Amino acid sequence: ALSKALRDGELDVEYQPIFSAVSEHAEAAEALVRWAHPVRGRIEAGEFIPVAEETGVIVAIGDWVLQQACAATRNWIDQGAVSQRFAVHVNVSRLQLADPSFVNRVVDLLREYQLRPRQIVLEAREATMLGSDTESVVRTVRALRRVGVRLALDNFGTGSNALSLLTEIGADVLKLDGTLALPSGASDADTRVVRALVLLAHALNMEVVAERVTGVEQLRRLRAAGCDLVQGHLVGRPSAPDQLITQMQMG
Question: Do 231 and 210 form a contact (C-beta atoms < 8 A)?
Fold first, then answer.
């Protein structure tokens, strides 16, 4: 059904803006794939991506999402809606990163849409970076980073190997999981932990993005902790490419 969905145009991509915690301007957007199922209606990625990964369809879907994201970014730039530095974040699977041809595919898209390498940020979870084919994944990640494409460690703080990934593989962006990003009820100790993680990330020349920001007080605490960027329903909801432009200023 997923293969058919891709062929029949049932998949679409929404974009959630990522704002600077300091300037309150949109610096990037994350591409989020959705499935408009003809019978079940709208299906979120969390429901069908695991199946796509198990069956291998994720490679074709991931390739399509990356192409859509590059095209959307080029269009926003051409319209003058974003600056030439605006970046798009795209989630990648272990199967994509383990594919020897993936680096060339990314480079080809950069050339086709006239984007700078740093305008693509590939988001990978800890589980994506680890596994039986870790060597191939690491080789791809290092090749992409040499080109200038950035890597983000997604949902940081949810796995037991998160810190070792920072030093052994390296990344350019650290995305704090929503449970760690000082949500409602967070204590002073939680704030100190986040501040320490931010300091560590900065020492490793990484930017820090706080995910799932939903409250004004949470945003204040994240700013105080030194987070560089914020993402969540408080500052911008996922929307179609043409609607994202209206969300470019943090409300």
Answer: yes
pLDDT tens, 124-182? 987 777 766 788 998 999 999 999 999 999 888 665 566 667 777 789 999 988 777 77
Separation of alpha carbons 158 and 54, rounded Å: 22
Residue-averaged pLDDT of the chain: 89
Contact status, residue 212 vs residue 229, Cβ threshold 8 Å: no
d(CA 9, CA 249): 31
Distance of alpha carbon 44 from the chain centroid:
16
pTM, whole model, 2 decimals? Answer: 0.92
Name residue 34's beta-bridge partners: 12
Please write down the long-range contacts of 102-110, taking CB distance under 8 Å and 24 or more positions apart.
102/140, 103/140, 103/143, 103/144, 103/147, 105/63, 105/66, 106/66, 106/144, 106/147, 106/149, 107/147, 109/66, 109/67, 109/70, 110/70, 110/149
- For 158-171, give the secondary structure using H, E and C: CCCCHHHHHHHCCC
CB contact at 8 A, 121 and 90: yes
